[in-house]
Amino acid sequence: MTEIEEIVEDNPNPRTWKHKLWNVTKILLKLGVTSVLLYYVFSKVPLSEVKSRLIHANYWWMLAGVVFYFFSMVASSWRLLSFFKSIDLRLDPRFNFRLYLLGIFYNLLLPGGIGGDGYKIYVLHKTYKKPAKRVFWAIAFDRLSGLWAIGLIIVALKIFIPQIEIHIAIPLAIFLVGTIIYYFVVKKFFPDFSKHFFMGHAKAILVQSLQVMTILCVMMGQDFHGKFAPYLLSFLISALAAVVPITFGGAGAREAIFQKLSPIFHMNVGLAVFLSVSFYLTSLIVALSGLYYVLRPSRLEEGIKSFEEKQAVE
To answer: Which residues span the domain enclosing 206?
Structure first.
């Protein structure tokens, strides 16, 4: 049974002992990989240095970083609406945002079973009777748009990093050609998703820009006055690696990439690892807001009912 097939069952949990065993195995593997990566990083960078930076940070700037990250989640849920519209799934924005917060809570804090994306597929399939695979593809293209936006900002940051001895025209040309191919593949094989392609990807740029602002705020909280571009580039590269679901919410993977890139881009390795840890803590704080809808599922259901009542009146 595939994950999609599991999701569309009345009970979203795996039905056989094999699936339960596999879920436990995945959690143990993630725990192992995360632990190994964190051990490696903090064998190179003393944990006490990261702790000291956190204790002596300017918390007003740190709070500003949390606010920017929260608004990046608001923009992310708005972006997802564009891809839902492509499959004629029109959700109330408030309900969509509540479901989005619940999804990131499941993704970051409950890294077993079907996860946040699987839960969203389950809820939307059961509530609106949309084919689970179409909802899955809407969420998949939402994720792809985020990766595309990260690629765009990485190319833009190349201008400010002389250590990368490649003319800007080369990565720019690769990105443009890749974008054209990407669009025509979508238009050819997934025509429904080409309807809101440009709007969805424009929103993706907003999302990633807000997350870059999160890192800038954390750096300002450290009274940083050096070159920002290498740290921002490293953050975006680590974001690409964190997409691979081999750790808990990217923990360990981000820190390892920052640590490895520090000597290449002449970064302060302590600050670099601190940025990664701070971003994880920031995302954890925002993800915890989704716990409210675990404890009060009626609030999530109210969003569904109010929108259905509105649609009936219209």
So the answer is: 3-313
Count of CB atoms within 10 A of residue 292's CB?
15
Per-residue pLDDT of the chain (314 residues; tens, 9 = 90+): 344 444 444 444 555 766 667 667 777 777 777 788 878 788 888 888 889 999 999 999 999 999 999 999 999 999 999 999 999 998 989 999 999 999 888 887 665 445 788 888 888 988 888 888 999 999 999 999 999 999 999 999 988 887 787 888 999 999 999 999 999 999 999 999 998 999 999 999 999 999 999 999 999 999 998 899 999 999 999 888 767 666 666 677 888 888 988 998 989 999 999 999 999 899 999 999 998 888 888 888 776 655 555 554 44
Cα 104 to chain center, whole Å?
A: 8
Q: Token pair for residue 239?
A: 């974001």
Domain count, the chain: 1
Give CA–CA dist 222/161, Å, rounded. Answer: 21
pTM of the model: 0.87
